[in-house]
Specification:
single chain; mainly alpha; about 0% strand; elongated
């Protein structure tokens, strides 16, 4: 019976480590994809407005929308991996939120914005659908792009800043409670 408890503990240790690895790799891909998508779409709008630039020919604009759709597929998939591996990590890791304030703050910052990400992923999925399963014109993509950029009055940008804060929290690990070793 004692050997089974040891085996279960080893599997438990292995699970959170795998979840952490998947979390880190998927987060790098996800945040990188978000930045790539922002760089691709940045040149389409006049600075500080939601008006499209006139100098882009329709073919170039269409190609930008295609690239945005492709990058959105990567972003959505990697975000789902981050979400699932984050849940597995929190459930199986030996780190208790009460003793590791940095982890609790990170979890709060991440899970607080799940509804925001869900809504923006819905808009991204509509663009992906239009790109790969219809013959929609640029006007449809323009409307979806503006809806995505203006979504939730800037909450996606606040979410992105929170995700970068999580990187700092995980790196420096502030608010760690020192557990005394006294018996």
């Amino acid at each position: 019976m004692g050997d089974q408890a040891g085996i279960a503990a080893d599997q438990h240790s292995h699970t959170w480590r795998v979840a952490l690895f998947v979390l880190v790799v998927a987060a790098i891909i996800w945040l990188g994809g978000v930045n790539i998508r922002a760089m691709i779409g940045n040149d389409m709008l006049k600075t500080g407005t939601l008006e499209f630039e006139e100098y882009l020919p329709p073919e170039a604009e269409r190609e930008i929308f295609r690239l945005l759709s492709i990058s959105s597929v990567v972003v959505i998939l990697s975000y789902c991996f981050v979400l699932l591996s984050g849940i597995v990590f929190l459930v199986t890791s030996p780190f208790r939120l009460k003793e590791h304030g940095w982890l609790m703050m990170s979890a709060i910052l991440f899970f607080l914005f799940v509804p925001v990400e869900g809504f923006t992923m819905y808009l991204d999925a509509k663009m992906i659908y239009q790109e790969f399963f219809t013959t929609a014109d640029n006007q449809v993509f323009r409307e979806l792009f503006i809806a995505r950029v203006a979504a939730l009055a800037g909450a996606p940008l606040i979410a992105l800043m929170s995700y970068y804060t999580i990187i700092g929290l995980a790196t420096f690990q502030p608010f760690r409670k020192q557990v005394s070793q006294d018996s």
